[in-house]
Amino acid sequence: MNPVPWRWRWAGIVGGLLVGGVIGVLGAFVQAQRILIGDVAIPWGLALVWVVLVLAVRAGAWSVGTRWAAWAVAVGWLGATVALATEGPSGDLAVSGGGRQLTYLLGGVVLASAAATLPVPRPRPQAGAGHDGDVATR
User: Which is deepest, 25, 37, 91, 118, by most CB within 10 Å?
Assistant: First the structure.
């Protein structure tokens, strides 16, 4: 049985959606950052956003004890990213249609899905615990 009450689970799922949305909004702008070393462009922003996304997805699963919260972070990130990839009223895009941005979107979906699919660690039973959870006496 999971020790997290159902009310906290729902709060964790809603919080996961919000956290994913924040990562999506910030990531849409940070992913374009890169450093030029000679003629080679290193996309450090892309790697940073991917690492933060995977850590947030796993933290959502661990904090609530269910994969629903992990998927909520992933869905929040995807929703914010897709919303910023659509053309606004003034014609501006935060995530354009280039190859680097497509890599950001597809790579993020693959990494977030993989991180959300991993099992949630279950608490280990205490040493000496009986079948019903009470500590056995000798």
Answer: 25
> Could you tell me which residue, 97 or 134, shows the higher pLDDT?
97
H-type alpha helices, the chain: 6-30, 44-64, 67-85, 99-117
CB burial of residue 90 (10 Å; 0-12, 13-18, 19+): exposed
| CA-based torsion, 92, 31, 79, 17: positive or negative | negative
State the sign of the Cα–Cα–Cα–Cα dihedral 102, 108, 17, 26: negative
Q: Which residues pair with 110 in a beta bridge?
A: none
33 CA to centre of own chain: 20
3-state SS, residue 41: strand
What pTM was computed for the model? Answer: 0.80
What whole-number distance in Å separates Cα of residue 44 and Cα of residue 31?
8
The answer to whether residue 138 scores a pLDDT higher than 60 is: no
Residue-wise pLDDT tens digits, 72-99: 999 999 999 998 888 777 776 777 777 7
Residues 6+ apart with CB under 8 A from 108: 27, 49, 50, 53, 77, 78, 81
